[in-house]
Amino acid sequence: MPAWIGFGSNIGRGREQLSAAWRCLGEFPGIRTVNISHPWKSSPVDMVSDRWFTNAAGSLEVCLSPEELLDALKVVEADFGRLRAEEGVGYQDRPLDLDLLYYGVGGGHIVDSCDLVVPHPLISRRLFVLLPLTEIEPLLVDPKTRRTVSEMGKDLLNRETGQQLEVCDWKE
């Protein structure tokens, strides 16, 4: 089953951590890595921090349910030192953040439970997700909005959001 994930890091050497996390995911049982975007540097969104993020998006083939894939993502995050704050604390700086963005053929699978929401509920407001995702899968259609990730990214670029991004190479 296809799945798309978002990567982020703003503690440590972001590009190296995202690259290493990508390799770890490829070694995880039931996960095959397919394609990853360039890394993108982005300003923090919805949090107070002076540390910019390194972000990317990746496509996977999985033999896991969405819930099992989320569990795998949390294991990889923990292996990279991610500590999750108490509920309600808000966003914090982190060495690795992995988000399940879309799941299923064409990204069309919808999950809405207390532990997992797919598609990720903030995709349409996050350039640091939409631009890397557009790079690897521009025609992916959001099952809730019925718009492609490319269309959502263009719309967000045309609004003044205060989000700053720049594309990078994997080598620093």
What structural category do the secondary elements indicate? alpha+beta
The CATH homologous superfamily is named 7,8-Dihydro-6-hydroxymethylpterin-pyrophosphokinase HPPK
In terms of per-residue confidence, which ranges show pLDDT below 50 for 5 or more consecutive residues?
none
Number of E-state strands: 8
What's this model, at a glance?
This protein is of the alpha+beta class.
How would you summarize the topology of this molecule?
Elements: E1 2-9, H1 14-27, E2 31-36, E3 40-42, E4 53-62, H2 66-79, E5 97-103, E6 111-112, E7 117-118, H3 127-136, H4 149-157, E8 165-167
Helix pairs in contact: 3-4
Describe the protein's architecture and organization.
By secondary structure, this protein is of the alpha+beta class. The chain has one domain (2-167): 2-Layer Sandwich (Alpha-Beta Plaits). It is 27% helix and 24% strand. It is built from four helices and eight strands. The strands form two sheets. Strands 1, 2, 3, 4, 5 and 8 form a six-stranded antiparallel β-sheet that branches. Strands 6-7 form a two-stranded antiparallel sheet. Helix 3 packs across helix 4. The protein is globular and about 35 Å long. It starts with a strand and ends in a 5-residue tail after the last strand. The model has no long low-confidence stretch (mean pLDDT 89).
